[in-house]
Specification:
Blueprint: H1 5-27, H2 29-32, H3 36-41, H4 48-75, H5 77-108, H6 115-122, H7 129-161, H8 165-213, H9 217-225, E1 235-236, E2 249-250, E3 253-254, E4 260-261, H10 264-271, H11 281-289, H12 296-324, H13 332-335, H14 338-346, H15 349-387, H16 393-415, H17 422-446, H18 452-473, H19 485-502, H20 508-516, H21 529-538
Antiparallel strand pairs: 1-4, 2-3
Helix pairs in contact: 1-8, 1-15, 4-5, 4-8, 4-11, 4-12, 4-15, 4-17, 5-10, 5-11, 5-12, 6-7, 7-8, 7-15, 7-16, 7-17, 7-18, 8-12, 8-14, 8-15, 8-16, 9-12, 14-15, 15-16, 17-18, 17-19, 18-19
Length: about 550
């Protein structure tokens, strides 16, 4: 295959990006492999800037640069906009209500280094039943999550270079797998920091360029207002579709029908995305790994600012993209490439390569976190927690890496269909994790009467509710069409409360630990290489 000059420079820029992230992985390999604490949580030595950008970059994944702009491009501002509002509120509340408490309690509760481990030690669960259930739930939904990130890699290379989707999806997956396998938590956090900065830069550059390409803000708004309901927060644009599901066009313009009402139920459904944050292991583990609880406030400000600005830019790119290339994409799945096509259209080849590496940054930062958390949950909480309690750190890390391979292969299986919508694949996994762990996280930190039986009931109820609602109840439509996270979250919370009330009060040792876990913050560990060399250099 002959490579055009422009494609060559795009590839050079992206190759440089690959070299950077792999180098970081190998740099931290020796330290990360010194113990399970270092490999799974960085020894709790990560500072506020790295914690903030790592949490947000790992959280946002490919849907920030592809999924969210794709929704905005296809049906306008309502779906994407209200989802972003929910995510922004959820981000703030998670940092405000959970971060500091989880950092302190995870140390108090047996110095827990994984989220499932914290749940078990919080309830003094010597048999590790709680952590085993949690680890299995993480394994199920993270396989789906990892798959969504691999979809992003495949779509990126296919759209940019016309290369085979499946081949490039596997290639991107292998890159993520290698630096996660070798470097552990510190490499993930360090690359997340770089990727978070790159994602922010990419969004800003493409948004500004798109507006200029469309003829300025006034011309863009005028065009978009001509599409019924496109810019409304209470209506949604309705593309006219063929029998095959592709949008119809006329005179090189997209066809839309009358706008549909975007009611209160739809708004609530999208705002419910914010509830997911309370149960996201990839974010919660960042809270556990920060160097000091006293640095949470600073980290929160950084994270929320990054989140709000990035979400705003992502939605605007989708909206402006409809004005710049109005008939480029006939389906929502195809529209998820709008960021890539705009970058290619407007930017010099090398700069385009740098910018679209932001998409790789989004998917790689997230999938690496998912792989690592899945591996740590199985190895630490099932293998050492249940199957072989006297396992050495070396044995635990071997099991963790075997788990990485399994999740990696299953993620490839999930991602093999190139017509998969990143936005909807992510929404399924997001609901599953949010409903399974969100209510339990809040109850663990705020309600002393929560029992181990209540914790198990809440996790199982959340998982089952998402699966049942998504597959059997939501298709009924109407009020049942609400995003499954909201009803599943409520059901899980109710189960925790009811079962906890029906079972004996927790042992006195558990109550005493709860009553005093906020009393004194542990001393912050001494600054280490991750903070000294990376953060001070880049920030």
């Amino acid at each position: 295959m002959q490579i055009a000059s422009g494609d060559f420079w795009v590839m050079i820029a992206m190759l440089a990006y690959f070299i950077v992230v792999l180098t970081i992985g190998f740099v931290y390999a020796k330290r990360s492999n010194s113990s399970t604490s270092e490999y799974f949580i960085g020894g709790r030595k990560v500072g506020p800037w790295l914690t903030a950008l790592s949490a947000e970059a790992s959280d946002m994944s490919g849907y920030l640069l592809m999924g969210l702009p794709g929704v905005a491009y296809f049906t306008g501002a309502s779906d994407a906009g209200w989802t972003a509002v929910g995510l922004a509120i959820g981000t703030y509340l998670n940092w405000k209500l959970v971060a500091k408490r989880l950092r302190l309690y995870s140390v108090k509760a047996g110095d827990s280094i994984t989220l499932p481990g914290f749940y078990s030690k919080r309830f003094h669960d010597d048999k590790n039943i709680v952590s085993t259930v949690a680890a299995l739930i993480i394994l199920v939904f993270f396989c789906v999550y990892v798959g969504s990130c691999f979809v992003t890699c495949g779509k990126l290379f296919h759209t940019l270079f016309g290369l085979d989707y499946a081949t490039m999806m596997v290639f991107g997956a292998i890159i993520v797998f290698l630096y996660t396998l070798v470097g552990g938590y510190l490499s993930v956090v360090a690359t997340d920091f770089v990727q978070g900065v790159l994602m922010f830069f990419a969004l800003a550059v493409v948004l500004i360029g798109s507006i200029a390409w469309a003829g300025g803000v006034e011309n863009t708004v005028t065009f978009l207002q001509s599409i019924p309901g496109f810019l409304s927060g209470t209506e949604i644009a309705v593309p006219v579709l063929t029998d095959a599901g592709a949008q119809m066009t006329e005179n090189e313009m997209p066809l839309f029908g009358d706008a549909a009402e975007y009611g209160v139920l739809s708004v609530i459904s999208m705002l419910a995305w914010g509830l997911g944050y309370f149960g996201m292991p990839q974010v919660l583990v960042r809270f556990m790994g920060i160097r000091s609880a006293d640095e949470i406030s600073r980290s929160r400000k950084i994270a929320v600012t990054w989140c709000v600005v990035s979400l705003f830019c992502a939605i605007c790119i989708g909206l402006v993209g409809r004005a710049v290339i109005p008939v480029e994409f006939a389906t929502q799945s195809a529209a998820e490439n709008v960021f890539i096509v705009l970058s290619r259209l407007m930017l010099p080849s090398f700069i385009c390569g740098v910018v679209v590496s932001g998409i790789l940054a989004a998917s790689m930062s997230s999938s690496s976190s998912y792989l690592l958390i899945a591996g740590s949950s199985v190895a630490e909480n099932i293998f050492r927690g249940v199957l072989k309690r006297k396992a050495t750190d070396a044995q635990v890390m071997i099991v963790a890496r075997i788990t990485l391979i399994v999740v990696f292969l299953f993620g490839i299986f999930v991602a093999y269909d190139e017509n998969s919508s990143i936005f909807y694949v992510v929404s399924y996994a997001w609901a599953g994790l949010g409903a399974s762990f969100g209510p339990l996280t809040l109850c663990s930190l705020y309600w002393r009467r929560t029992t181990m039986q209540g914790a198990i009931a809440g996790m199982v109820a959340g998982t089952v509710s998402v699966l049942v609602w998504h597959n059997f109840i939501a298709p009924l439509g109407g009020v049942f069409g609400i995003y499954e996270l909201l009803p599943a979250f409520i059901i899980s919370l109710a189960c925790i409360f009811i079962v906890s009330k029906l079972t004996p009060e927790p042992p006195q040792a558990v109550l005493d630990e709860f009553d005093h876990y906020m009393d004194e913050a542990p001393e912050a560990p001494e600054k280490q290489l991750v903070e000294g060399e990376l953060e001070q250099t880049l920030v």
